[in-house]
From TrEMBL:
Subcellular location: Cell inner membrane; Cell membrane
Predominant place of localization: membrane
ArnT-like N-terminal domain mapped to chain residues: 10-237
Gene encoding the protein: arnT
Transmembrane annotation, as ranges: 82-102, 114-132, 183-198, 210-229, 257-276, 288-307, 313-333, 345-367, 379-398, 405-425
UniProt-listed InterPro entries: ArnT, ArnT-like_N, LipidA_mod_glycosyltrf_83
Entry-linked NCBIfam families: PRK13279.1 (NF009784)
EC number(s) per entry: 2.4.2.43
Function summary: Catalyzes the transfer of the L-Ara4N moiety of the glycolipid undecaprenyl phosphate-alpha-L-Ara4N to lipid A. The modified arabinose is attached to lipid A and is required for resistance to polymyxin and cationic antimicrobial peptides.
Organism: Pseudomonas edaphica
Domain of life where this protein originates: Bacteria
Name assigned to this protein: Undecaprenyl phosphate-alpha-4-amino-4-deoxy-L-arabinose arabinosyl transferase
Pathway the protein takes part in: Lipopolysaccharide metabolism; 4-amino-4-deoxy-beta-L-arabinose-lipid A biosynthesis
A GO term, aspect molecular function: 4-amino-4-deoxy-L-arabinose transferase activity
Any one annotated GO CC term: plasma membrane
């Protein structure tokens, strides 16, 4: 089958159908998508490709390269939903290609190459992030490329191919560093050093490693010097806040328990999670093989490192998923070749039960506390949600019924889920979490306003991106702009509760004012209560838009 259908083009076609095509069919999720859309748009508009700015305010949380790729997507495809997301999709697709290529190099088995790439592409966390504008898919690709290049370097038979692989390793480390920071250098070293010491090939590392360092430096140093000259405080903030504090501080952002990533790993590899026991057993049995040792180090050492960090988010472990897919694909095809169907059958049944439980929960919630309204649009979304769940259940039941031949069916289930579920979301979620669509509905009126203000950064950045205007005032909110708003040229952008009426009165002297609010919590209701009466008011879910006319 794989020879007839040419597995790599087949995988990329499936990727295009399930992941690329639906990207323009739903609004930008807050906070990440609107943030990255606006920062990248601002680079295009300002021509400042060195120092990231978020709605005109200095934003030092990440380097610049990730924004470059998102900006490039908007430059090529337009400042639209597809243009914002295409960088994540393409880098995920390239990681799928890497999975196929390294599996072919490791085992020279077409079925294993296809299985490894398919499993990686259909891991829930990978699939969910593929159409989501974020830096994690990009960073994951550069880490994946660095470690694939490392294996090719160590496995090369000629000096030329070895030099080329080490040079590619340097490129990947350099681009990874300029995407999310020093972790891009640490992770390859974390895996390379123990593996090379185990192989007793330290001399090879000392001979060729400097090439990777030189290539990475050639890529990184020009931008590193440029941002130092433009923003001398950048490196102090970035190194201290984004690395030292996030890793070790008691008040680190997104603080979690050390075991946080263990259940996340299980969820991340759905719909293949039930194959984990068989994968671990197979890995242990083959622990003497160099390829298996390399993959195990690639999986376990970053997982241990991330678990030691106080700050944790599910996406942090995405660099661990490619080696897991390789180990799992290796184990899966061996089970099929040996005619051992039990683990695959159990995987299909577990997924079917999960889908059935989700369907029962949806029915119960809709009866007891309806999530969907009675409009035709809401009923269509509800029907679509049921169709997605039904497709998931059927796809996995097919795997359970014929595990040795229809083993790949869960990938179809996750593909349909990723493609259709956003369109099946109830309005109570989309109206609150995708404010750019609300802004789009009132774009003509907002374009006529003189000033803009918002009480939530996700909504503010949606407003800024849709209108192509950076000057949005921040009403009783700072968030990740807390540091940037301390600069003298930005402090005027802050508006507190006591001064909002004065600010509005002054702004209305010059023209109309648009106020975009997200009103859910007690504090947000208090913020709404401080606003003066009047103006044209529009509500949708938790979002409130007020257009105040110019004062006479």
């Amino acid at each position: 089958m794989t020879r007839l259908l040419k597995p790599l083009p087949l995988l990329l076609l499936a990727f295009a159908v399930f992941y690329l095509l639906p990207m323009g069919l739903h609004g930008l999720w807050i906070p990440d998508e609107t943030r990255y859309a606006q920062i990248s748009q601002e680079m295009l508009q300002s021509g400042n490709w060195v120092a990231p700015h978020f709605m005109g305010v200095r934003y030092f949380e990440k380097p610049a390269a990730g924004y470059w790729l998102i900006a490039l997507g908007q430059a090529v495809f337009g400042e639209n939903l597809f243009g914002v997301r295409v960088a994540s999709a393409l880098t995920t697709g390239l990681s799928v290609v890497l999975a196929y290529l390294i599996a072919r190099r490791l085992w020279n088995d077409p079925r294993k190459s296809f299985a490894c790439a398919l499993l990686y592409m259909s891991f829930g966390l990978v699939a969910g992030q593929a159409g989501y504008s974020n830096l994690d898919p990009q960073f994951t690709f550069w880490v994946n490329l660095s470690l694939v290049a490392l294996w090719f370097a160590l496995d090369s038979r000629t000096p030329r191919s070895r030099l080329g692989a080490w040079a590619v390793l340097g490129v990947a480390c350099g681009m990874g560093f300029m995407t999310k920071g020093f972790l891009a250098w640490l992770l390859p070293v974390l895996i390379a050093v123990p593996y090379i010491l185990w192989q007793r090939r330290l001399g090879e590392l000392l001979r060729y490693g400097p090439l990777a360092i030189v290539v990475a430096a050639i890529l990184c140093v020009p931008w590193a010097l440029a941002i130092h000259l433009q923003e001398p405080d950048y490196w102090r903030f970035f190194f201290w806040h984004e690395h030292i504090r996030r890793f070790s501080a008691d008040n680190a952002q997104h603080a979690r328990a050390w075991w946080f990533f263990l259940p996340i790993m299980v969820v991340a590899c759905l719909p293949w999670a039930a194959l984990l026991p068989a994968t671990l057993i197979k890995t242990w049995k083959d622990k003497a093989q160099p390829a298996i040792v390399f993959l195990a180090l690639w999986l376990l050492l970053p997982l241990a490192f991330f678990s030691m960090s106080r700050g944790k988010l599910p996406t942090y472990i995405m660099p661990c998923l490619l080696p897991l897919a390789l180990l799992m694909g290796h184990a899966l095809i061996d089970l099929i070749q040996q005619g051992k169907a039990r683990a695959i059958l159990i995987n299909g049944l577990v997924n079917a039960v999960i889908g059935l439980a989700a369907m029962v929960a949806l029915i119960y919630l809709q009866i007891s506390n309806p999530m969907y309204g009675n409009s035709h649009a809401e009923m269509f979304s509800l029907s679509l949600a049921f169709i997605v769940l039904l497709a998931w259940i059927l796809a996995n039941l097919l795997q359970a019924l014929r595990p040795l031949t229809l083993w790949a069916m869960p990938a179809l289930g996750i593909g349909l889920l990723v493609a259709l579920l956003p369109a099946g979301m109830p309005e109570m979620i989309t109206d609150t979490e995708m404010p750019d669509q609300f802004v789009l509905e009132h774009l003509d009126e907002l374009q006529q306003t003189h000033a803009l203000i918002s009480n939530e950064l996700g909504s503010a950045s949606a407003l800024s991106w849709r209108l192509g205007r950076t000057e949005v005032a921040f009403y009783d909110t700072e968030g990740e702009l807390r540091y940037g708003l301390k600069y003298a040229d930005s402090v005027h952008r802050k508006v507190d509760l006591d001064s909002v009426q004065t600010w509005l009165a002054q702004a209305r002297q010059q023209g109309s004012v648009g106020v975009l609010m997200r009103v859910r919590s007690t504090s947000e209701h208090r913020e709404e209560g401080q606003l003066p009466p009047g103006g044209k008011r529009y509500r949708k879910g938790a979002l409130l838009l007020i257009i105040y006319p110019q004062l006479p």
